[in-house]
Amino acid sequence: MRRRGGGGGATLLVEAVLDALPSPTLLVDRNGTVLLANSAWNEAAETLDDDRFRVPVGGDYFALALQVRDDEHARALVAGIRELSMGLRDSATADLPVQLASGTRWFHLQASRVDEAGNIVLTHTDVTSRVRAERASAWQARHDALTGLPNRSYLHQLIDADLAAPRTRVAVLFLDVDGFKEVNDSLGHDTGDDLLREVAARLTAAVREDDTVGRLGGDEFVVLSRGCTPVEAEALAERLRVTLERPFELGGHVVRIGASIGIAGTSGHRYLRSTDLVRDADLAMYAAKAAGRNRVHVFSPDLRAAAERRATLANELRDALVRDELVLHYQPVLHLPSGRCTGMEALVRWQHPERGLLAPGEFLPTAQAHDLMTPLARWVMTAATRQIAEWSRIGLDLVVAVNITAEQFSSGTLVEDVFAALSDAGVPPELLVVELTETSVAEDPERAAQQMAELRRRGVEVSIDDFGSGFSSLGQLVTLPAGMLKIDRSLVNYTEGHRDRAAAAIAAVVALGKACGIRSLAEGVETAGQLALAAELDCTFAQGFHIARPMPAEAVPGWVSAQHATAAPVALAAR
User: 30, 170, 411, 504: which has the fewest Cβ within 10 Å?
Assistant: First the structure.
């Protein structure tokens, strides 16, 4: 313990108390002159090995504080200690960073007035570990753990701050990686994570110095561009798109991706909230993706109006499911060897109260975007099985095919949903065909095989729809327990002069199906020649406008009766 001058018992008591304190502690007068320094202070000064802290008794603590950190924080601290000594406040505290040769250390200063003379006790506790932990925690709360980029929450904070600043020009680029899911599915999540890190690095290297790159989550990134004109924002977006087109080398694999980028900015548009600006950039990104992917699209108000219409349509569709506004039309399926109609495909329509009868293309995209595909598919299943029961009661036994969505398929409830509908309607399973698109099967082939096998084991036929429109067809055909293939209309609707090529493609599919014990159905038949070719190539079934267009349920019995009266095996086409 070092002290200034002599002292009586009271001074010795103060010395003893200060020396017992574990933190470096000083006693100073109202002018900042050091009166006492405890042992911990002296030891800390030697440990830090910095002459600034070797303040002798009688030295100037205020000068030390300003020498260590000469800024508004240090000056405010000195002013606060002076006010404390004069009795104008009860205490003074501060966390002070100190720059040392070994790095930055943080000390928590606690100042207390001890007597009427205005003497002050100053304790200095090293809180470096705590401050570093707090800063690390705060950084983690604001940044994406995978890429180190600002996360969704922090991005919105940054954008809100820029929008609040006067006369600030801001542009947001919303970027979605095209092809990421395929990389993740084929090469694994670790490679997918590596790709996202590489994407983050490339974006960060390609933006301007004042721009901020952040990750919203998944394969979605945002670039916050400050002081950016519309022309500059488009140029930046195009630079980012080209940057991501360059191949990535990941774990011995060469990966190619693209990017759909939407742009929204404050030039010409008034934004008060970051959520609105990011939403509009997101809408522009979806427009870029809808236009063919790997493109740049600039937001325009019509995109927001279209989004609002889709949201309104989604709400109306939810109500339609409750109000029973949906209806099923049925398209006949012809058994080619006998020429008789043996089944129907159930096709959903919406009897909109204001817009009339809507085709699926007018509302299914909205249903998919708003998580309505599964309840819609369940409604179709229920309505179709009830209709099968109605026809059976009048002696009309038709096999009805129902389309299953990828969402319902991936939920794992498909088998349960199918047999619940059959049970409620009292329909035998052999009168139902479940149709799954090739692309929905491709998302999870193993789960697909399990559910398809269970359906067929319990008597429900399974068909793969649109076969030939994807890229993984042959491999799936070998492993998936389907009983029927619907040959995609793109193969069946051949144009004049391409009959031989179409025939070769159809024949290959039919032969492959036969080798796997699977029957074939040619869909989209629009001419007599196409129907005859399907029969010639040994397809078992066919459907299309040449046979019949979809019709309401009440029209089916009469049409089937008339068709059966004239049915005959389909003649082969003349060559």
Answer: 504
